[in-house]
Amino acid sequence: MPTAPAGTLYRGREGMWSWVAHRITGALTFFFLFAHVLDTALVRVSPEAYDTVIATYKNPVVNLLEVGLVGAVLYHALNGVRVILIDFWSKGPKYQQAMLWSIVAVWMLLMIPGVYFMLEHTVSAVFGGS
Amino acid sequence: MSSAEAPDIRAPRTQRTFGSSGRSNFELYSWLFMRISGLVLIFLVLGHLFIMNVLDGGVQRINFAFVAGRWSSPFWQVWDLLMLWLAQLHGGNGLRVIINDYAERNSSRMWLKAALYASMVLILVTGTLVIFTFDPNIS
Fold it and tell me: Among A103, B31, B65, B128, whose Cα sits 20 to 30 Å from the Cα of A22?
C-alpha cells in the first residue's frame, strides 16, 4: 500500500526552525533599529519633538510590540550563544538540540518577570485599578 | 624578462589573495565578526533593553530630561556609541547575508545591497552626530 507523498518541505526539525527564527528576529530588530536611531535623533530638534514621539512608545498597543521586540532580541541573543557553542565547542553539534531547549527554558524564565514589569503600567491604565 | 609562453602556474596550496584571483577572506572575517560583536552586543543590548523597558517603570519614565541625564555621563555615551556601531554593522552584515541568500538576480542583489549600505551610512552618521553634539539646553 503506497504511502502519501512526503512533500518537499525540508524537515530540519529544531535545528532548522531555530535558524529560521534567528533570521526573522535578527532582520526585524535591524528594521526597528533604523526607526529607533531616527526617533532618538529628535533630541537634536527639540525636547518637545522628542517627547511627542516617545509618547508613542507609551501607548498600550506599542507597549505590546515592545514586549515582542524584547522577546525577539532575547531569543536572538540566547540562540546566538548556542550558535557560538556549536561552532567553537567540540561537543556543541552533539548537544545542539539540548541547548535549544535550554535556551527556550531560560527565555521563558526571563520573559515571565520581564513581561510583568513591561506591561504593569499599561495593564493598570487600560483595565483600571487603583 | 620572462618569455610570453611561460604558463602562470602556482605551486600547489599557494594562498590565494584578493588582488590576483578575486578571492579574499572577507567571509571568514565576517563570520568571526558576527560572533565577537554578538557576544559584546548581548551585554550592551540586553542591558539597554532592561534599563529602558523593565527597570523602574520602564518606558513610561523616558523623556528628554531622562536622555539628558544619561548622556551627561561619558559612560553611557560610550555605551550607546559602541552599541550603535556594533549593532549596525552586525545587523547590516546579517541583512547582507540574507540578501545574498534570497535575491537571485544580480541586479536585485546590487540594488538591495546599495539600499542597505545607504541606510547603514545614514544611521551610523546620524546616530554618531547625535551622541557627540547632544545639547541638554536646546530650546
Answer: B128
